[in-house]
Predict the structure.
Amino acid sequence: MKASYGGFEAKKSGGFIEYPPVGAYVAEIKNVRFVEGEGSSDYIEMMLDIIEGEYKNRYTEVYEDQKERFGDSVQFNGRFRLYPPKDGDDDWKKRAFEGNLWCVQESNPGYAWDWDEKKLKGKKVGINIREYKYKKEKDGATEIKVITEIGKFETVDDVRNGKCKPLKTRIQKGLDESAAEEPKFTPVEKSDVPEVPW
């Protein structure tokens, strides 16, 4: 047989690295940015990775694996957005913003939110991962997809003590909401996590 390409190297073909499953994990905020939108759509976007347990560094591992396979177009998916409320916004938006930041404060003694989002970098916080079910149009057909996402913050102590409640699956508008089943949680253990790119 004639060689069809240069640089051949026999090596094992590995499977894709999976995202962390539904559960509560101790994480670190690795990077932060403020994004100005239109109207009340400004948000603080945070990049996080898990720092304790079996799934430590998992978002970084997935990112690096996908970047190697697909190039620079891939995105880091361990992200979470906070939407700062404005005067006149609904109370639920204010409660969500304050509740998530309270978890950061409780997880980092001595830290208090002062409207400087850059100070969130390096802080520890618990993350509660849920499923998100949505529909995707492809080649004229509709596929139902399920992914995981960070649903909300928890305190580090609550994660470590197993006090976090599972979040229901988030369902895209228009899909059957009976699909929102109660997921099971994954336990965590302690360890470290390296820096990751934005």
Observations:
- Strands lie at 23-35, 43-50, 79-82, 124-138, 141-154, 170-171.
- The first strand starts at residue 23 and ends at 35.
